[in-house]
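Supplementary Methods, section 5.1.

A reviewer requested that the exact input to the structure prediction be made available. We therefore reproduce it here, unchanged from the version used in the analyses.
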Amino acid sequence: MKHNFSSIFSNHKIGSLTLKNRLAVAPMTRVSANEDGTTGSLMKRYYESFAKGGFALIITEGIYIDKYYSQGYKFQPGLTDEAQVKSWKTITDTVHNNGSAIFAQLMHAGALSQYNKYVGRGAAPSAVKPLGQEMKFYYGEGDYSVPKGMSKEDINLVINGFVNAAKLAKRAGFDGVEIHGANGYLLDQFLTCYTNERTDEYGGNLNNRLRIFEEIITSVREAVGIDFIVGVRFSQGKVNDFEYKWPEKEADAKYTFQSANTFGVDYIHTSEHVAKDLAFNNSMSLSELAKNYGEVPVIANGSIRNEHDAELLVESNQADFVSLGKAALANPNWPSVVNAKQNLQEFSFDMFNPLADLKTANAYLAKNL
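The structure derived from this sequence is encoded token-by-token as follows.
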């Protein structure tokens, strides 16, 4: 059998961690945890499949960080208590036993919360009703609700929540954490002008809108130490506003990515509809802007389906790693298949119908593959 020795199968480092190839599983909401936020056997098999399939790195679905306003979806996993830590430990052990690394993506849904068992509503930088409608395949229905505008005390709870969840992630055996600052969720709501109408130190200019990122990242780094990986994810588009672009374009990208470096992250994860596309007219891709200005390893995400898509980003120095979402769902063994020069399966949205959960996906795969 002919094997592939392309650039995407070379090893590379993020911080102190050496990864065996340039291939990561992107974070994807799966609404398949238990009601109490613990993981179960279905989730264990799900993450195990990617490790067995050859991915060097797995980034989990967004995990809620506190028992206040952070939960976004019904059956979303958490990292807030001992039971949740213990359940994640079974997953991290399994992933490590199969030769892969795993990061916990820490998430606060903010105004986009569709379900919260703890407080029953969302909280955000400002009391602005989100665009669009809740996502049905995540148990949503109808318009988003108007969130509570956060007080300074609420913001401190958010910062403390990220810190506590990061410490619990370390105890649960994760190799690192990714601070979810993308896709329209809470931290992105602070970054976005039309969802952030604040007039205090968290609103107004870009420096102020990035302040919560700085406070979270520096506090998490202090709590977990220098050898535990801390990354951050950025995007322009949002789950409820696909076409959004940063208003000052490359100037915003330069300041944002330089700031992330200053805050002390080990890597930046960028997400776009198509990772290789120009972020702005006459510019570069978002991941390449992150490479140029962030000066840390970059993971690129967005419509990476095949070996050519992945190689293009790595070999043109637009990214150090690529993360696969839908392609990984259809091919949990994507690295092994590509490395052996075999054929990949096409992703089908039937894997999300009626719900984007593991039971639906497993039923589709059992029937069609």
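The domain at 7-368 is CATH 3.20.20.70 (TIM Barrel). These observations are discussed further in the main text.
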